[in-house]
Design a protein that fits this description.
The protein is mainly alpha-helical. The protein has helices at 35-55, 65-72, 79-114, 126-140, 145-167, 175-199, 202-212, 221-240, 242-249, 252-257, 262-284, 290-302, 309-329, 338-356, and strands spanning 2-12, 15-26, 29-33, 168-169, 172-173. The strands form two sheets. The chain has a three-stranded antiparallel sheet with strand order 1-2-3. A two-stranded antiparallel ribbon has the order 4-5. It is globular, with a radius of gyration of 21 Å. It is found in: Cell membrane.
Length: 361
């Protein structure tokens, strides 16, 4: 077993970045890693765990950290508190963390595929497509949680197919064409979503309107489990394909010379990213700007050109959980849906990003 240091070149956004990597070897097997990326991932994971522990004590019903510890330890005296913890707090926390992880990883993939910081599923229309599928189930069929989640996946996939086909030209996908097409399709779907609200009866329209605001209120395990399973299954697959996708960022011609099947890798990663974004939308409703901000913040912490799949996922979970805590701790008893809160904060971040990014100078 030995550790050696190598230097691998990687190209990001038209410039050459040299990343110091380490190789861990054990017999015939070896794994490359970056110490800084590993430390950033551990830092984000630790901060996420601390935030989750604190979130168990936040809410209308008083619940102290010692009571949470007793409940998890099996102390039988706190029956009411146990019901609050297991049926209200933990499902809400799990939904926030895993929906944020799904959005963060999805945003990282789409920003890599489009080679643009604006390439996130909520901006290029995939979240709107998932919302359309979910609204059809809510407004027209009054369906339950599982049906809404499945409809969100179907709507997101259908939107992805349309955007991909409209962006495909001369044997490849145009990167700016992908973003502009997605924005156009998303605008059409947003108008369709408004028509669906008018079509339904008043009760279903109110439910759909609350869902469109993005909310973690009254979430249970049926909301959390689909996105939890999706993240657990798809995140390792996305990490496995992250290196070929990073090679594609260098240019299609160079990737072809390296023997990478460009469209196959791109399609698989887009499929995984769309499913994750749709699962997050089905679980918590349309959540704005998490998919846009999380990958960029992760890249700045890592100072790396590598695709930040796990780091972006952890950052997304941390951002969404922090936003949920902020909505619960806000003074004057104001009730702000989580989607509106992320929209306010994310809009400010987007203005800063547009002002500071070299892509728009």
């Amino acid at each position: 077993m030995e550790t050696v240091t190598t230097v691998n070149p990687a190209e990001q956004a038209g410039r050459q970045i040299y990343l110091s990597r380490s190789v861990w070897r054990c017999g015939a097997y070896s794994v490359t890693y970056s110490r800084r990326e590993l430390l950033v991932g551990l830092f984000l994971f630790g901060l996420l765990c601390l935030s989750a522990v604190y979130a168990t004590t936040v809410g209308k019903f008083p619940l102290s950290l010692s009571q949470v510890t007793d409940i998890l330890g099996g102390v039988p005296e706190h029956r009411i508190q146990a019901r609050v913890l297991f049926h209200i707090r933990l499902p809400r926390i799990a939904t926030a963390i895993f929906a944020g992880c799904a959005l963060g990883a999805s945003g990282a993939v789409f920003q890599s595929v489009s080679r643009n910081v604006l390439g996130s599923p909520d901006i290029i229309g995939f979240t709107s497509g998932a919302a359309t599928g979910a609204l059809i189930q809510i407004v027209l069929f009054s369906s339950g949680t599982v049906a809404v989640a499945l409809a969100a996946i179907g709507g997101g996939l259908a939107t992805a197919v349309v955007v991909y086909l409209l962006s495909f030209k001369s044997g490849s996908v145009g990167y700016y064409r992908l973003i502009l097409t997605g924005i156009g399709v998303g605008a059409v779907l947003s108008a369709l979503n408004g028509l669906l609200l008018v079509k339904g009866n008043i009760d279903d329209a109110l439910t759909a309107n609350l869902w469109l605001s993005g909310s973690l209120h009254a979430r249970n395990w049926t909301h959390a489990l689909p996105v939890m399973v999706g993240v657990a299954v798809l995140l390792p697959l996305m990490k496995w394909l992250a290196r070929p996708l990073m090679m594609i960022e260098m240019g299609d011609e160079m990737a072809k010379q390296l023997g990478i099947r460009i469209e196959r890798v791109r399609l698989m990663m887009m499929l995984f990213a769309v499913i994750l974004a749709a699962l997050a939308t089905g679980a918590a409703g349309p959540i704005a700007f998490i998919a846009l901000a999380a990958p960029q913040l992760a890249r700045r912490l890592r100072r790396s050109g590598h695709l930040p799949v796990f780091s972006a996922a952890l950052m997304g979970g941390l951002l969404l959980l922090a936003a949920d805590l902020l909505t619960q701790l806000i003074p004057l008893d104001l009730i702000i849906p989580i989607g509106r809160m992320t929209g306010i904060v994310g809009g400010i971040y987007l203005l800063w990003l547009l002002n500071s990014s070299r892509l728009f100078r």
